[in-house]
Structures are given as C-alpha cells and as structure tokens.
Amino acid sequence: MEGLQVDYDAGGAIETSDGAKLYYESRGPQDAPTLVFVNNFFIICPLWKNFTSRLAEKFRVVTYDLRNQGASSRAKEDLGIETHISDLGELIEKLDLGQVYLVGTSVATLIARDYAVTHPEKLRGMVSVGPMFNPFGGRRRKYIIKSWINAVEAGGVRSLFDVMYPLIYSDRTIEAGGSATYLALRERFLALNSPAQAAKNLRASLTTKDDGRKLTSITCPTLLMAGEQDFYTSGNTLHELARIIPDSRAVVVPSVGHLPYFEATEEFERLIAEFVTEIEARHAVADEPTVVLAGARG
C-alpha cells in the first residue's frame, strides 16, 4: 500500500462552461488511441498511474478528477449524473481527443453508460469494470447506495469504509492482507473523502435510472468486465448484459472482487489492451479502400 503513487504531477486543468475546473493527466503516445478513465467516487486521478503503466506504453491514457473530487472544483449545489456527463463531454472536446475509449469502474460505469447512449459519435469503444447497472432494473443498486449514504450520515467516512470493505475486495485479498491492508486502505480512504463529499457524490448516483432500453441503444463496441467475487455483478448478470448490449462481450476475472484493476492489475491491463487492439484492427479493415481491377465487370 505504501508503494502506491498518489502524487499530483504534470497535470493540467480545463474550465467547464459553468466555471468549474477539472484536473486531468495525460500519459502515453499522444497519437495513439485514447483511453479516458472515469473515476468512481472514491479514488483520485493520480492513482491510475499504478494500474495503467502497461497501457500507457501503447495508448494515450487520460485520467481526471470528477467534479467534487481530488483537485477538481468542489460542487456547491447537489450533483447529478447529468453534470458528470456534461463535464466528461467538455473534457473530451477541450482536449481535442476525438473519438475515445471510455473506461468506467464501479459507480462510474453509470456515467460511462449514459454518455455512450447520448454521445455515441464520440466513442470508439467502452469498457465497464464492475458495472453498477444490470438488465433487470436499479432497485437493488439504489438500496445499496442508500445504505452507504446512511453509513456516512450515521458514522462518517470511517463507517462507510467499514461497510464497503468486505464487499469490495475478494476473500483472498482480505485474508492475505490482514489487518495491515485493512488499516492502510482505510487511512487512504479517510484522507481522500470527507463525509459531506462522499454523501453528495453517492446521492448523485441515484439521479439516473436503469432502463433496459439504454442498454440496447449502446452502439459502440463494449467490454464488460467483473471479478468472480464481485458483490454486485455476478457472472450470470454480466453475460445477460452482454446478450442485451449490441457488439459486447463479457469477461469474468477469476478470484477477485469489485476492483479487478487493484487485485489483478496485469490481467486488467491485458484485457483492455486486447480489446482496444481488436477494435482498432476492425476499423483499419473497414477503412481500407476497395480496389477495382481494370476491366472487371460486376
């Protein structure tokens, strides 16, 4: 845990149309396919350096802090998913990223999903890691989120961490890490999240609905990834999502929980790299000019 890089360095900021500042970092070849990582509500942009080093060798990796998070502007009013979608769109536009691959994790998969539905022309592909949506509706997700909000309001961020920790990580990680890992992760979590900030961000996730029609209207190639021990998305649910979302495929990562990038970093990067490489090859074939031989007849 002490070896994780969390320092802000070599980043920049854009200003949104309503005056908010969004901090971002960009690594990797600038002319390569671009991966935009959308944070969940409990991590910060620099943390991705620990989980994307191999990806940044081949692709441009853009990470940023959501509004009301890390080095980005704090939200004075209540937030909604629509605000995060608008911020994401402005980031892509102002950095002139063109078509991108979106990578969303946990609650951020709601932002990525809704952006894919409303801005399909901006996406080359999408990766949903530990998706917090399913084909059956959003009641269970909302019950879970409300229980987390109750934990914050009753006992602060430490209480929230104690509720989430046994859900997020796998049996193997919790047992192998013991008290040392629990305490180290808890201290990081407490340092990054205030009670007011955590509650406001969680409430924002309740402002979008899980409508099955959203899933059928996702047109970009989609990789669905979840850990074998994910507390929310079972393997069966993941494969049902792949059946409903056009041009999608599901991958279950063995022996990990809700955060494959943390517990199986190498596999997480490999799966994304193979997905992007496959989609780029598909586009290359589609873009090849058709050669008509002289004298050929139809």
Describe the model.
With 298 residues, this protein is α/β, with parallel strands linked by helices. It has a domain at 12-138 and 209-286: 3-Layer(aba) Sandwich (Rossmann fold). The model has no long low-confidence stretch (mean pLDDT 93). 40% of the residues are buried. It is globular and about 60 Å long. The longest helix is centred in the middle third of the chain and has 30 residues, at 139-168. The protein starts with 11 loop residues before the first strand and ends in an 11-residue tail after the last helix. Strands 1-2-4-3-5-6-7-8 form an 8-stranded mixed β-sheet, sandwiched between helices. The protein has 10 helices and 8 strands. It is 45% helix and 15% strand.
Which helices and strands appear, and what pairs or packs with what?
Layout: E1 12-15, E2 21-27, E3 34-38, H1 55-58, E4 60-64, H2 81-94, E5 100-105, H3 108-118, E6 123-129, H4 139-168, H5 171-192, H6 195-204, H7 212-216, E7 222-227, H8 235-244, E8 248-253, H9 260-263, H10 265-287
Parallel strand pairs: 3-4, 3-5, 5-6, 6-7, 7-8
Antiparallel strand pairs: 1-2, 2-4
Helix pairs in contact: 2-3, 4-5, 4-6
Give the tags.
298 residues; alpha/beta; Rossmann fold; 8-stranded mixed β-sheet; 10 helices; globular
The second-level CATH architecture of one domain is 3-Layer(aba) Sandwich
How far apart the termini lie comes to 65 Å
The CATH class name of one domain reads Alpha Beta
Shape: globular
Rg, alpha carbons: 19 Å
Poorly predicted ranges (pLDDT <50, ≥5 residues)? none
Query: Biggest sheet: strands, sense, closure?
Result: 8 strands, mixed
CATH topology of one domain: Rossmann fold
- Give the tally of β-strands: 8
| Helix coverage percent | 40-55%
Protein name: Alpha/beta fold hydrolase
Pfam families: Abhydrolase_1 (PF00561)
Keywords: Hydrolase
InterPro entries: AB_hydrolase_1, AB_hydrolase_fold, AB_hydrolase_sf, Epox_hydrolase-like
